[in-house]
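Let us practice reading a record.
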Amino acid sequence: MLNTSNPNNYEYVTNHLLIDILGGIRLNHLDRLRVTISIQKVKANEKLRHNLDLYNDNQVEKLVRNTAERLEIGTSIVRRILQELTNELESYRILQLEKEKSNEITIKELTTGEKKEAINFLKNGKLLSLTNKCIGKSGVIGEETNRLLMYLIFTSRKANNPLHCISLGSSGAGKTHLQSKVSELIPQEDKVEITVLSENAFYYFNRTELQNKLILIEDLDGAESVLYPLRELQTKRRITKTVVHKDTRGNTKTIHLTVEGPVSVSGCTTKEQVYEDNSNRSFLLYIDESAEQDERIMEYQRKISAGKVNIEEELKAKELLQNVQRVLSSVAIRNPYAEALKIPNEVFKPRRTNAHYLQFIEAVTFYHQYQREKQYDKQTGEEYIETTIEDIQEANKLLSEILLRKSDTISGACRNYFEVLKAHLQKEHQTTFSNKQISFMLRIPLSTVKRYHLQLINTQRIQLREKDKTGRHLYEITDYKEYQELKKTIVTVLDEAVAKLNGSIEA
C-alpha cells in the first residue's frame, strides 16, 4: 500500500483515502516521525495538507478531527488509516537503515599469506621501481613518473604530513582517468570520492571520519563551494563551524561542528590559474598529451577490444598494491640531512615549495618503512625511522620535473605548447611564424594560439620580428634552450646537495 518509488513523494493508497508524503521521511532521529502529508478522499478533488509528527498524539488527533470534518469521513476510519500509515513508514525506515548498514564499507582483514606477500614486496631493494611496474600491470598506461608520484602522494595520507596533488591538462587528456586508475590501488575504506558537494557538507562528517583519508575530487569546477573548508583542512588539519541548534525543549544553543584531519586531497582541472590557492598547497601533475602517449593508450584500447589484455593479472596487481597500503602503519619520520638540503633559487614561492620538498622525502621514507630500523627518542620514547640518502636521491629524481614547473614563469599549458612549437619549427627548419600558420599546422584554435603567444611575448620568450607582405605579424623564438638550461640548473642544485652529503659521510 506504501509506494516509495519516488523519494520526494511517497504514496499511500487505501479504499477511502489517498495520502501523499511530500519530501519523504528522514532516516535519522528515530524518536520522531515528521511528515508533510496531503490527504484526499478517493475520487474527490479536495485536499487537506498538514505538517506533523506522527509520534505526537495531540497532533495526530487534531489531524483526525480536521480530516473527518473537511472530507466528511468517520474519525475511526481516519485514525485507523493514520495508524497503519505510521506502521508502514516505521517498517520502511528500519528496512532502509538496515540497507545502509549493510552497504557500509568493511575493512578487509588480510590473511597470513597476503600480509607476508605485501611485506616482502615492501622489503624489495628496488621498491619504487617494482611499485611502478606493478602500477603499470594494474592497467595504468604510460605516465611513468606521474603515476608513481600520485601513488606516493596517496600513500602519504597515512603519514603525519600528507601531500596533495592536482592533475592538469586539456579537456579529454586523461586527468580524471589517471586519478581514477591510481586511486583504485588504494583500499576502498581509505578514500572518499566527491563529484558535487554542498557548501557545508564537510562540516557534517563525523569528527574523525576523514582522518588519514584520501579525498578525490573528480573536477574542481564541481566542488567550488567546498574549496575553502578543504584548504583549511589541508593547512590546519581540522575545520570547525559554529551553528545554532534547538534542543528537545526548544532552547537555542550554540554548538561547534569539528572535523579532524589530516587528509590527502587530489583533484583535476583544466584551469591552472583559477585554483591558484589550491595549487599552492599541492603538487601539480601535468598530463602527458604527446602523440606517443596517445598511441600507447589507443593500443591498449585495441587490445582490450580484441580480448588480449589479461584482466585477471590486472586485478592481482591492484589487490597486491591495496594490501601493501594496508600493512603500512603510521610512524614518525626524521630526516637527519634536512638542514643540508636546499631547493633551487629559481623556484617561485620557495617557503611552501621547500616544505613540500621535505614532506615528499618523508613520504618516500615512509613507504620504505619495512627497510628502515626503528629507533626510539631517548627523552620522549617516541618511535621513529630515519631518512637515508637513497630516499633523497629517489625523491630528487621524481621531483625534478615538479620543481622545474614551479620555477617556470609561464603556465603549464603554455609551456607544453611552447615545447611543441619549438619542435615543430626545428623540424620544418623555420625561424619565423604567424598565429594563423601555427594554428593550422598544430591544429590548435586560433584564439588559444593568440593567448599563448601573448604570454610568451610578455615573458620575452618570443618577439615580433617583422610583418609579411600581407601585413601579418611574424614572430621568432628568442632562445630555444632556455627550458633545458633551467632544468640543468635545478638538477645540478639537487645533485650537489646529495654529493655534499655523501662527501661528509665519507669524510
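A brief commentary: The chain has 16 helices and 18 strands.
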